[in-house]
Amino acid sequence: MKEHELKALISLLDDPDVDIYRELEDKLITCGPEVIPILEQSWEESFDVLLQSRVEQIIHKIQFNEVQNDLQLWTMSNQEDLLEGLLIVNRYQYPNLGEEEVYTKLAELKRSVWYHLIYDMSPLEKIKLLNNIMFREFGLSGNTSDYHAPQNSFINKVLETKKGNPISLACIYSIVAQRLDIPIYGVNLPKHFVLAYMNEDNPEEVLFYINVFNRGQVMREDDIRSFLKQLNLPASEDYIKPCDNVAIIKRVLRNLIAAYDHVANIEKREEIQLLLDLIERK
To answer: Is the pLDDT at 233 greater than 70, yes or no?
Structure first.
């Protein structure tokens, strides 16, 4: 559709007839993200509150469709890239974010650790180094004062504010570690997401666990088993061994559902539920 045709459609968005509006909305949404700049321009040039509101709704629906499509593609073909999965979730709330900021910050963290990394360090020494860089020098910490805030689940906000929830902190920690060939992966422990340091010589063996929310505290398998016992849960491999990246993104989405529920944002809660349902079926 040509630009003048799009502008003509947009100019009719203030029509009081809801059926006409729905038809216009469907046509514009079908155009996809290419129409967003023209919609934004129309919003800026208009003083009509109804038209502006409807433009905002259409832009959001187009962007939400893009997030759904990206998440489906990631689940099918790119799930080995945890960061990309987190950025797709990020696009839900921050569709216009310059994602290079996230890449740059993670690269800086990697470089800071690499500078002090010595080849023959023991696993515990590597954890001590990671903890020093991530928590003392960079300043990451658990957001204990606003634990349920949605921003704790968006990686750009966690890197910006340096505060997050257990899973967002664990994701940042493990992404940096894996980029340095340190075998640290997420463990889907109920009520509290943790990390596992795997044996490089035997990738199936967990050497120890890391509680990132508690500034990188090292935990043994007995600690994990005791925690599960308190929850009256079995010490199954699902809770003791690393999970895949799809399970991590599902957990991030469930956290967001709970966060939006906590702040009574029903619309966002329902949209995040749609994203979760999308990958639950895979």
So the answer is: yes
HSE toward the beta carbon, residue 4, CA cutoff 13 A: 0
- Counting the structural domains of the chain, the total is 2
Residue 219: DSSP 8-state = E
Average confidence score pLDDT of the chain: 95
DSSP H helical ranges for 163-212: 166-179
72 shares its domain with 86:
no
- Structural domain including 215 reads 82-280
Both 72 and 147 in one domain: the answer is no
Contact status, residue 168 vs residue 158, Cβ threshold 8 Å: yes
When pLDDT is cut at 50, 70 and 90, the band that residue 48 belongs to is confident
Read off the pLDDT band of 282 (50, 70, 90).
low
Half-sphere exposure of 264 (CA within 13 A, CB side): 0
Q: Give the end of a domain, one of 47, 77, 107.
A: 77
